[in-house]
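Summary for the steering committee. One of the milestones for this cycle was to obtain a three-dimensional model of the protein with fe (iii) ion bound, which we needed before selecting residues for the alanine scan. The sequence and ligand used are listed below.
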Amino acid sequence: MNLDKLKEATRAQMPDKRWRHTLGVVETAIKLAERYDGDPAQAELAALLHDYSKAWPIDRKEAVIREHGLSAELLDNDKELWHAHVGAWAVQTEHGIEDEEVLDAIRYHTSGREGMTKLDKIVCLADYIEPGRNYPGVERIRQLAEHSMEEALIAAFGSTIAVLVERGKRIFPLTVLARNDLIMQMK
Ligand code: DGI
Ligand code: FE
Ligand code: FE
Ligand code: FE
């Protein structure tokens, strides 16, 4: 699949604001891959596609989860988590993406998971710190990302968990597992 065509197809799935975010994640993911000895081409592809289904109507995402056997646990958790799994399914079926590392990085970019690969970390962290992001604490996470993706992600997941607790929402178990595992890796 030609990258320019994939860019056009991805852009067509989302409003301009989400597309600008996507371009920020691509730029940041490539930089992180270069800084941390990852694969910039894989980082670029996974970042480009990471929010592929984000702007789809919620019913369409739910239908994919139900009809194509995606993790049923998703349906009991925040709808914000759905686009990551649905996006991985969509780029595989609609665009023939078969690189399992790229598909996993898309699938786990929101929640994280235990045993995150380098590519998972690059995409998830780039999503948190791309230049268009502006939430309390983002500057500190950007600073941590200068020397450690693990430290930056521990802070990033920590801030997400804190916000979810503050709002009385459920926390998807993979996010807790991801953070615990990253803390273990620091020891
Ligand atoms: O798709 P983006 O907006 O670029 O970012 P994302 O895919 O990281 O989605 C983040 C949203 O997901 C954020 O509003 C918090 C929400 N969310 C809901 N439950 C959970 C969660 N995020 C994580 N990491 N874990 C959860 O349990
Ligand atoms: Fe996302
Ligand atoms: Fe994220
Ligand atoms: Fe994103």
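Key point for the committee: The radius of gyration is 16 Å.
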